[in-house]
Every structure is written in structure tokens, then in C-alpha cells.
Design a protein that fits this description.
homodimer; 4-stranded parallel sheet; 3-stranded antiparallel sheet; 11 helices; DNA-binding
Chain lengths: 220, 220
DNA sequence: CAAATATTCAATTAACTTATTGAATAGTTG
DNA sequence: CAACTATTCAATAAGTTAATTGAATATTTG
């Protein structure tokens, strides 16, 4: 095979793989599967898509080896094929946040509205957690927390936060986290906490980003 | 703005950015610009595209802030907008090499044909360079070498290698590198060296990959 | 300032991608 | 094994993307 044919082929293969990621619905699926495996129905519900459409997008991801699946009773459960998939998405996401002014504006506006404008980074978190009066709050659904969470975090799912807010101590400072920088649970948590007079901010990154770099804890 | 609208927007913006990368010609351009800036004409020549087509692809990359440009006399010279662009491409490339069996087969076949089947990784290189009888050979064009190279490498551009091969010492072991894992200069160098009775292998990665992680040397 | 050169633009055609709809399939449960 | 359920498939229409061609633009050089 000559040089040009070889290059055409490697770049074409690479482009097809990237093409499989280059769709808003599929990115949302990848982001969600970063939490752990999900059935087609669950993915459809969480991303507000029809089941048929979700299934089609999953086929595209499967054909490019970005996801794998297993049957579990009546359900087919999908998961990311390997860590590199989420890693790549994380990098692309960072590239977007750095180079697209529009993205920056969108996120800043949203967070201003939620009082979560000054997020804490993973590096900040390591420092802040040494302090006795900082509490790390995992606001994801209970199942996700149980499947793995940042060590020392406590779990109050976002939809229980309002009713369980009396459990929290006003003298403490809260750092809320959820599924990633594009997940809004943490922003909603900060909005509520600040409104009720707590000191709170959100973690910039989410659980999957922590997991790529540090050890996790689970409930077993 | 509500949650769903926010999500739709961030994923759509991200997808558009990724879409701008998801094309074989544009990946080849990004890979090439990893070496340093280039005029439209140079890019067209090195990628075997028409100038008009090259220009159109460059417009797409520019609109997504993946490349920047400056005028230099009659020429417009393009460069990557920042390190994260090459970083993302590197990650996606790794993802492809890991998860696409077809990619693996393609590269293995090509290297078998060039006798460069067992490449040395960047980590291996650091160890091997401690040995007195290993020579690191940069086979990129002279200008690229001068703009930056791996410390202690010597430059013999691939198209001069045949005529200058008598300069090389047969008792030494050679490691050839070029622009990256998809660049074939190093494979061609190894093919020639092995045929002439030298001990030679290629570096898996290329200069831009080194540059993202380690200091470089230039001619000034 | 005219000629030359490098690059971009515009229009066209062919190919590909997405969402929607409704039907088909393949497992599981009673 | 019949009924049920979760998922996939197939067909369609609307929208998007890519390569080609030739013309237009903008800058430099003589």
C-alpha cells in the first residue's frame, strides 16, 4: 500500500470514529453513560428522546465501538466501551470551554442565575477538604452515589434536598457536585442552598472526572 | 433558561466543534499544523488536495476556533489555535487505535511492510537514550527540525537519507521519528536502514507528542 | 498603478445524517 | 407456548456536508 492510500485510510477511519461522537444527542448519551450503565429506556427518559431515536443513536455508538452492551432480563444495558471514551469527551469539552466564547457565555449566564458562578476545581477541592467545616455534597440519585462517589461525600439527591435541608448545618460550607460540568443538579443545589442562607458552591467537574484521576468509594 | 434548553445548547455547541474535527481532510490538516504554521498552498501540497478545497476546510476550522492565521507577505499562514487542539486529536487518535480493530490491522500491515513493526514508545525512548550506542534520528524536513526537535536528535530528512547513509555508523542502533504515529517518514527510514543492514526502529509517537510532555531544543 | 499571486467565495451536484413513524424482532414471564 | 415487553429495524422527508469548477478579492511587486 502506498503512502497516500495509507494516510487516506487512517484519517478516514479516525474521522468516522469522531463523527460518531459529533452529535449533541450522542454526546449527552456518552456523558450520561459516564455515570454507569443504563437501559435504552432510561437513556431515552433522561435525555428527553424517543426510545426509537435513542436506539438509533446507540447503534451508531456501538458500531464505532464507543459503547458495549449486555442483556439483563428484559433490558439491554449499555455502557462506555472504555475509559478513553470519557477521557476524549472530557478533553473535547475542555477545548470547547476554552475556545468557544459562546460556550463560556452560556455557562456563565446559567450559573449566575443559579448563584453558582464561582465553581471549585478538583484541585481546589483537595485543599478545601482538609478543612473541618467543608462538607462535600453528592446530589446525584441514590443509585449513582452507591455505585461510586468521591470519598467523604454525603448523598442528598437533588429532588430530596428541599425536604431534607433541615438535616444540614448552617455553620458549614457546602460544595455540591453531580455528573459533570454540564450537569445542572449541582447548580440547582447551590441555588436552593444559597436561597436558604447556606454557604455553597459547586464543583466545576463531576464524579466521572474525579474517577479518571483519583480513587473512589462505594457502598457495598 | 430551563435545564433542557441549557443542555441542548451546550451539547449542540460541543457537537459542532467536534463536527469540525470529524473529517479526514481536516484531521490531516490538524495533524500537519501540529508541526507548526503553514500557508494554504503548503497545506494543499502536503495533503494532496486542491487549494480551493483546502481553503474551504480551513474556513471550517477557523470558524470553530481550531486554527488561527496571520498574513505574511503574499501568504496567509495558519496554525493551531492552542495546545488543547492537538491534545484532543492525540486522545481521539489513541481511542481509535485502542478500539478500532481495523485501524490496528491497517497500521500493523503497513509497518510489517516497512520492517518497522516494533515501535519504541516515548517512555522506552527515555530509557534507550541513556545508552551510548543509540542514535535518535529526526527524518522530517530541515525547516521543521530547526523549528524544534527532541534534544540530542540528529536531522537527516527522509529524502536525503539514501544519499547520506554513508554518514551513519553501522555499529549504532537507530530510532527514527517524524511527525506522529500516522506520519510515514519514520517507517520509510526504517525500511531503508534495515535494508542496508542497520539496526533501526521507529518511535511510535512523533515530535508534537514529545512537545506536549517534554522540553524541546531548537536551532537559533 | 498595473500585473501577478495567494487565497477565498459562490454555485452546483452528489452523498450523507437526523428525527419520525409504525412495524418487526427477540427475549422473558406466567 | 401465548402474551408481553424492550429494543431494533425500515422507510421517508428535511436538512447538512463535501468536492469541483470558475470567478472574485486582496495584497504585494515592479
Amino acid at each position: 500500500m502506498d503512502k497516500r492510500a495509507f494516510k487516506d485510510k487512517v484519517y478516514t477511519l479516525s474521522a468516522k470514529l469522531i463523527q460518531a461522537m459529533a452529535n449533541p444527542r450522542r454526546l449527552e448519551i456518552i456523558d450520561l453513560l459516564g455515570q454507569g450503565e443504563r437501559s435504552v429506556e432510561e437513556i431515552a427518559r433522561e435525555t428527553a428522546m424517543s426510545v426509537a431515536n435513542t436506539s438509533q443513536h446507540l447503534q451508531v455508538l456501538k458500531q464505532s465501538n464507543l459503547v458495549q452492551l449486555r442483556r439483563d432480563g428484559n433490558f439491554i444495558r449499555y455502557r462506555l466501551a472504555n475509559d478513553k471514551v470519557y477521557q476524549s469527551w472530557q478533553d473535547l469539552r475542555m477545548m470547547g470551554m476554552e475556545s468557544l466564547a459562546e460556550m463560556d457565555r452560556l455557562i456563565t449566564d446559567f450559573r449566575r442565575q443559579k448563584n453558582s458562578l464561582h465553581p471549585v476545581t478538583l484541585e481546589d477541592l483537595l485543599v478545601r477538604m482538609r478543612s473541618k467545616n467543608t462538607i462535600l455534597l453528592d446530589v446525584r440519585p441514590e443509585g449513582e452515589f452507591q455505585a461510586g462517589h468521591i470519598p467523604r461525600a454525603i448523598n442528598v439527591p437533588i429532588d430530596q434536598l428541599a425536604s431534607r435541608i433541615r438535616e444540614l448545618d448552617k455553620s458549614m460550607e457546602y460544595i455540591a457536585y453531580c455528573r459533570g460540568p454540564f450537569c445542572v443538579f449541582a447548580d440547582e443545589a447551590v441555588e436552593l442552598l444559597v436561597k436558604k442562607g447556606f454557604k455553597a458552591s459547586r464543583l466545576e467537574e463531576g464524579f466521572p472526572d474525579w474517577k479518571l484521576r483519583f480513587p473512589v468509594e462505594d457502598v457495598s
